[in-house]
Design goal:
The protein is α+β, with helices and mostly antiparallel strands. The chain is built from eight helices and 16 strands. The chain has three domains: about 45-120, Uridine Diphospho-n-acetylenolpyruvylglucosamine Reductase, domain 2; about 125-245, Uridine Diphospho-n-acetylenolpyruvylglucosamine Reductase, domain 3, CATH 3.30.465.10; about 245-340, no CATH class. It has helices spanning about 20-30, 80-90, 145-155, 170-175, 220-225, 260-270, 315-325, 335-355, and strands at about 5, 45, 50-55, 65-75, 95-100, 115-120, 125-130, 135-140, 155-160, 195-200, 210-215, 235-240, 245, 245-255, 275-280, 285-295. Strand 7 (about 125-130) and strand 8 (about 135-140) form a beta hairpin. The radius of gyration is 22 Å and the shape is globular. The chain starts with a strand and ends in an 8-residue tail after the last helix. About 30% of the residues are buried. This is FAD-binding PCMH-type domain-containing protein. Keywords: Oxidoreductase, Signal.
Length: about 350
């Protein structure tokens, strides 16, 4: 079991210190890796900003289909965003929003058919206002959670909850109801900390086909707009009520899963950011005992979560092709070799999950 204080501003992933033996053990496996890069832009157009395709961070949707759109636009200001929505509304085109990496399994950014419009929030990524005394932060909807956490930390503030991966945007996070893990207080849904939105919605021709609606904490429409899967309009700006900066003390404990159902709720009530990873193939459960501690607590561990580490492209392609061939076989049933391969991948993950939050100081 490894215990340490984790800086929230870097708690999602990053380099960390590991025992020398562990470094030596895995060194041969990494000698062939030269570098890593983020996924390419999910929006690609054949002719300027027309005849476009949309994908996601995984390079493929679940049904392996190609998502197409008539055109795409990349606004850099709220005024340009209003113009983009107005143009699409005037042409009666279906609109979907794409983000920097389009980190979504389902086709949420796919307008359907070939006649829709894609609006990307890639360049709507600025900090607009910080009020450290009132714990308020206003940003554009295309800002990555990684950058939001860093900006908040620099101001002595913290976003108390977020999903595992911080390469998603605040707008996409809210639209899909993404969350962390907690039974405490208001829970772990990030939208619970939203106190204001500016959203661009379609409008009648008399209003120029698009308007900006500003919703404050007392506005009843805010509850609908902050988790709306993009069906009400395009979020332009988000205001969050944050908390004073803190660290998190994390310990991973592996137990038998025979009484997991009975332990889940007590564990969640005992630890503010508690989390459980179930490994049914091994009859084990990994409990993350994760608690808030004062920012002055020694330690600077970082959570380099295995599921979001860079992976060799060739290996990912091979795994995907293997799955395509296997599952396309008529009357497919999981073979013993398939189960063994899955068990080996889980075993590899389990060996590495232990030291993801390591005490440094």
């Amino acid at each position: 079991m490894i215990t340490g204080a984790v800086d929230l501003a870097a708690a999602m992933q990053g380099p960390r210190a590991v025992p020398t033996a562990l470094v030596l053990l895995f060194l041969p496996a990494f000698l062939h890796l030269a570098c890593a890069s983020p996924p390419p832009d999910p929006v690609s157009c054949a002719c300027g900003m027309t005849d476009c395709t949309v994908t996601n961070a995984y390079g493929s949707f679940a049904d392996r289909s190609i998502c197409r759109a008539a055109n795409a636009t990349f606004p850099r200001t709220e005024q340009e965003l209003v113009a983009a929505v107005a143009e699409a509304a005037a042409a009666r085109r279906k609109v979907k929003v794409a983000t920097t990496h389009s980190h979504s399994f389902p086709k949420l950014a796919c307008p359907g058919g070939r006649d829709g419009t894609i609006i990307s929030t890639r360049w709507l990524n600025r900090v607009l206002h910080i009020d450290a005394e009132r714990w308020l932060l206003t940003v554009e909807s295309g800002m990555l959670v990684k950058d939001l956490i860093r900006v908040a930390g620099d101001a002595g503030l913290a976003l108390p909850h977020s999903p595992y991966w911080y390469g998603i945007t605040i707008g996409g996070l809210l639209a899909t109801g993404a969350h962390g893990s907690s039974l405490w207080g208001k829970g772990s849904a990030v939208h619970e900390y939203v106190v204001g939105l500016r959203i661009v919605t379609p409008a009648p021709e008399s209003q120029g086909f698009a308007v900006v609606r500003e919703l404050g904490a007392s506005d009843p429409d805010l509850e609908a707009a902050k988790v709306s899967p993009g069906v009400l309009g395009v979020v332009s700006q988000v205001t969050l009520e944050l908390q004073p900066l803190f660290k998190r003390s994390v310990k991973f404990v592996t137990r038998d899963d025979s009484d997991m159902a009975q332990k889940l709720v007590p564990c969640g009530r005992l630890h503010e950011f508690g989390d459980v990873t179930w490994l049914p193939q091994q009859g084990k459960a990994i409990y993350r005992e994760d608690d808030r501690v004062d920012v002055s607590t020694p330690g600077n561990g970082l959570n380099d979560y295995l599921g979001f580490r860079p992976q060799p492209t060739a290996e990912l392609i091979a795994v995907r092709l293997s799955g395509t061939v296997t599952f396309s076989t008529p009357l497919y049933f999981p073979s013993e070799s398939t189960c063994v391969a899955a068990s080996q991948r889980v075993s590899s993950w389990r060996r590495q999950v232990g030291p993801t939050c390591t005490p440094i100081e």
